[in-house]
Amino acid sequence: MPQSKPKPNPKAKSKSKPKQRRPQAPAPQPATTGALTGQAEDYLKAIYELEQRGSAAGTNDIAARLGIAAASVTGMVQRLHRLGLVRAERYRGARLTEGGRAAALQLIRRHRIIECYLVERLGFGWDDVHDEAERLEHAASDDLIARMADAIGNPTEDPHGAPIPTAAGEVDETRLPSIADLGEGEPATVVRMSDRDPAFLRYLDELGIRPGATVQVLDRAPFGGPLTLRVGANEHVVGTAAAGQVFIRLEPR
Ligand SMILES: [Zn+2]
Q1: Would 138 disulfide with which of 38, 92, 116, 132, CB 3.0-4.6 Å?
Q2: pLDDT for res 15
């Protein structure tokens, strides 16, 4: 490399090229998302969510989750592998390293606190916040998120009942059964539901199915047919696919 310019004095402020000299990381944290692109962060989150199902995240699953072509997934997974955030296992898929997991959980924390704040402080509907949070989660600083969380009393669940990871990256990862898994007559409380489809959330809202609602399967049509549910004091017929997207906690009879 030609060295035509003298080395800049490290103490002088270099306004022209601030990106060339990054400040040293304050603590030996595995990997912060600060240096990652929004796209890379989305990959980490997708891999985290897929891994929660119990196996490595396959290329096709990552592509479907992110709504992109499978062909473009491999390159990014390799990049995240080189950054030490992902272990790419040939034919098996990708798994997060400890650093990748920490980065994914911080992103999920930002996402869920933003959702809470939008609902609590800005009057958004619970069906309206996911897409906003998908965009804002990449831009919000840790300080902003800490202040937003403080302003609404440090919530532990998002508006759809999903647990919010702590700033230290702790989160309850218990896998819950869904309404579709319920036996007839077993009382249960709704804990959380998928928030990716606003129309689905509006549908659940009409049925009174929200976190905290009590549900019971009254009847189950054979061969995977619809379920008749008691939700609070009302009865509704719900398809198995929808019931499978609503996660519950069993209650003692
Ligand atoms: Zn969301």
Answers
A1: 38
A2: 45
Residue 51 neighbours by CB under 8 Å, 6+ apart: 57, 95, 96
**C-alpha of residue 3 to centroid of ligand 1, in Å:** 49
pLDDT digits (tens, 9 = 90+) for 150-185: 999 999 999 999 999 999 999 999 999 999 999 999
19 Cα–ligand 1 center, Å: 31
pTM above 0.85, yes or no: no
The CATH label, of 1.10.3660.10, 1.10.10.10, 3.40.1190.10, 3.40.30.10, for the domain at 29-173 is 1.10.10.10
Longest CA pairwise span in the chain (Å): 80
Ligand 1 centre to CA of 202 (Å) is 14
Distance 114 CA to ligand 1 centre (A): 9
Residue 170, classified by CB atoms within 10 Å of its CB into exposed (0-12), middle (13-18) or buried (19+), is exposed
Calculate how far, in angstroms, residue 226's C-alpha sits from the geometric centre of ligand 1.
27
**Ligand 1 center to 247 CA (angstroms):** 15
From ligand 1's centre to the CA of 11, what distance in Å? Answer: 43
For residues 21 and 53, which has the higher predicted lDDT (pLDDT)?
53
Q: How confident is the model at residue 34 (pLDDT cuts 50, 70, 90)?
A: low
